[in-house]
Amino acid sequence: MRDxxxxxxRYDNRAKNHLNNNGYVILNEKPLYSPSYVELxxxxxxxxxxLEIGAGMGENTEILLERELEVxxxxxxxxxxxxxxxxxxxxxxxxxxxxxxxxxxxSDGYFDVVCSAGSLSYGDNFVVMEEIYxxxxxxxxxxxxxxxxxxxxxxxxxxxxxxxxxxxxxxxxRMPTVDLIEEYGRRFGAVEVTYFGSITWLFPILKxxxxxxxxxxxxxxxxxxxxxxxxAFKFTMKATKS
Length: 242
Prior knowledge:
Elements: H1 3-16, H2 35-42, E1 49-52, H3 62-65, E2 70-75, H4 78-88, E3 94-98, E4 111-117, H5 125-135, E5 136-147, H6 152-163, H7 169-173, H8 178-188, E6 189-196, H9 203-206, H10 212-225, E7 234-241
Parallel strand pairs: 1-2, 1-4, 2-3, 4-5
Antiparallel strand pairs: 5-7, 6-7
Helix pairs in contact: 1-4
């Protein structure tokens, strides 16, 4: 099987596990939360048309829907889309379709904003970038939250997930890097980036001594003090199509 088919099969099965026989969703998945990502989404102007790629089961979609934006949440997994339709049917401005982020069905310049959380490694980096660019209006923005692939501790952890069958090989090879972020800056014309989570690997130990709030504050202070970049766990990016 191709890696894309492997991931589609994996996420189809995951979604099916959250649906009972009546189509009711039992969802315990947590959003890929980041205050900086939520802040960027909160800045999207009212009435904007937003495309979410690699939306999964909508773990991060409700943030958009609560702001009364017109949201198109897409994923390559049909079962994941079925979960989203079941979860968000009460929102009149919600749309969800099966889409391959490497070949989107939408017309050029259709969206004000494209966003994604943890999805960039599931497609060819440059093909996905060009598709995002294509479907955005002039002065439209792409907002991303994703993992960075420089810190050896995080690289090793992802490799273990691959060996245990929880990742396909291509997702390791396509994990975003600082070079990829710079390519977005060159293609779009302007990019703003925040790097964070350089000591996330220490959290299992530190949480024995610090509360969650103090741990988060300590982690943030380390990131800022040492101007974290390549050692970061994750990043948020806002690229503006000029």
